[in-house]
Amino acid sequence: MSSFAEEKKNLPVTVEKPIPVTYDLGNLAVFDSNTLDRNDLDSSNAQREENIKKISRDNVQLMINQILSLPIKSTTESANGTSGQSASMTLVQLPEPTSELPREKPLPKPKAPSKWEQFAAKKGIKPKERSGKMVYDEDAGQWVPKWGFNGANKKLDKQWLVEVDDEPKKAGDDLIDPRSLSRAERKKLIKKNELQHKRNMKGAN
Amino acid sequence: MIRTVKPKNARAKRALDKKEPKLVENTKQALFVTGKSSTKVLHDAMVDLSALKKPDIKRFNKKNEVRPFEDAEPLEFFSEKNDTSLMVLGTSSKKRKNNLTFVRTFGYKIYDMIELQIADNYKFLSDFKKQTFAVGLKPMFSFQGSAFDTHPVYKHVKSLFLDFFRGTTTDLHDVAGLQHVISLTIQGDFEDGESLPNVLFRVYKLKTYKSEQGGRKLPRVELEEVGPRFDFKIGRIHSPSPELEKEALKRPKQLEVKTVKNIQLDSMGDKIGTIHMNKQDLGKLQTRKMKGLKSRFDQTSVDSDTENYLNDEEQELQGAEESYGEDFVTANDIDVEPPAKRMKK
């Protein structure tokens, strides 16, 4: 075996071609457009396999020379997890593939705009600038959340004295506690928003 | 078209999301289908080809009656059902013996098809009693023949084999993973009008030796055939329509690298930035430090001390001038004693 390796020592690592070969190093491919003799490759030729191997070898040698001259990155990463030993890995940085190959599936379609998005685009409404969840409550002298537990939107529910409209919006409202009325209004808004959301999702699909 | 219902749990939803079109696509999966009339040769050939493509394969064991050039619908169904865009169908008949049909789909519709018939001098993996290639490694490709760049049929073959076996696309590749090469050779050059020569499919394993000429970096490469070995005769072909081809070759705009002003990449992949600056003020240039150059000795800002000093000097000079004038000895001065006067001064 050693003598075999010795023998290879003095063989050249460069190959001369009449037409230079082209590469697609992103796909690790080499394209050789030199002339091929039909007689060398005919199935009746006893040397056929040798000839094919020889041409391939020359091209692979050229490609290996190209690949090894690409920028190299060395990393230390455990080669096999069970032994726990770490070995250094030599990685070559391949360029982008240049051969044009068809995709598997068409490009993903952009999401369809919801009804609100369409409306906002028509009216030129920009999304409101978000300034965080907390607001300053001047009466209490502290920061409170805009909504949620102890939210500022529940202020009306907790008041001991509530202002009542002179004329109720709906008949019968004047008999109900205005505090629970405001809560019901809030719940109704949530329901309405959910419904719109559902309708938009249906439109988008 | 397969009926899809809205997924009822997260797992089903994930599975469906995986099938959705993606910006950066997954590795193409291959499906090996046995035709109605198959032979042992075809079966073994498909096993060997799937060994090269592993682990991105699915293989059918039962026979399926499919005639892709007459009715491709069953194949489109298989493609959608299994989410595979590469398919190999093995059929054998009197007219087309040991015929492999390589099919590619685009969006579950047939993109292109080509029939490759295995000529008689085939050899399988098991016929080579040597070390074989490792599973799942990215192969190298070597295409020999000018027709791979010029003739549409061979372009198709090139595109197909590159697409079929290239595996995952990476930007970093382990040098130790460069282990086997798929070599495709056109059996001799040909002219228009002649019958299309066979495509010779060979797989070699790389052996590298230290070389004195290549130095420490470049090795001497030798090849050893590991199989399978096929000579493919080209049969019927179905090429994509120009519109479909254009659609399939589209590249997503989102992935295009934006050119940023003043930032360049050189050939080695290093980033180079250009900085534009105002004109340099040479007055503030730091030169050699010396006591005499310190700002307090500057001539521009004259303080009172130096002013006085300068004035003194001027007066002295003026005085000197006067005395100098007196030094002139004229005829009138001779009677006076000049040395005494000088002493006074």
Automatic annotation (TrEMBL), chain A:
Q: Name one Pfam family in it.
A: RRS1
Supply the InterPro entries for this chain. Answer: Ribosom_reg
Q: Is the Nucleus keyword given for this protein?
A: yes
Q: Which UniProt keywords apply?
A: Nucleus, Ribosome biogenesis
State its location(s): Nucleus
Question: Quick one: where's region Disordered?
Answer: 96-134
An annotated GO cellular component of this protein is: nucleus
Which example biological process does GO assign this protein? Answer: ribosome biogenesis
| Positions of transmembrane segments | none
Function recorded in the entry: Involved in ribosomal large subunit assembly.
Indicate the family of this protein: Belongs to the RRS1 family.
> Which protein are we looking at?
Ribosome biogenesis regulatory protein
- The organism encoding this protein is Lachancea thermotolerans (strain ATCC 56472 / CBS 6340 / NRRL Y-8284)
From TrEMBL, chain B:
GO molecular function (one) = rRNA binding
- Ranges for the Brix domain? 28-243
Q: What is its main location?
A: nucleus
Might you name a Gene Ontology BP term for this protein? Answer: maturation of LSU-rRNA from tricistronic rRNA transcript (SSU-rRNA, 5.8S rRNA, LSU-rRNA)
Keyword Transit peptide attached: no
Keyword Secreted attached: no
Which portions of the sequence form the region Disordered? 1-20, 317-345
Q: Name one GO cellular component term.
A: nucleolus
Q: Name one Pfam family in it.
A: Brix
Q: For this UniProt record, give its keywords in alphabetical order, as a comma-separated list.
A: Nucleus
Compositional bias, Basic residues, is annotated for: 1-13
Please state where this protein is localized.
Answer: Nucleus, Nucleolus
**What family is it from?**
Belongs to the RPF2 family.
Q: What is this protein called?
A: Ribosome production factor 2 homolog
| Organism this protein belongs to | Lachancea thermotolerans (strain ATCC 56472 / CBS 6340 / NRRL Y-8284)
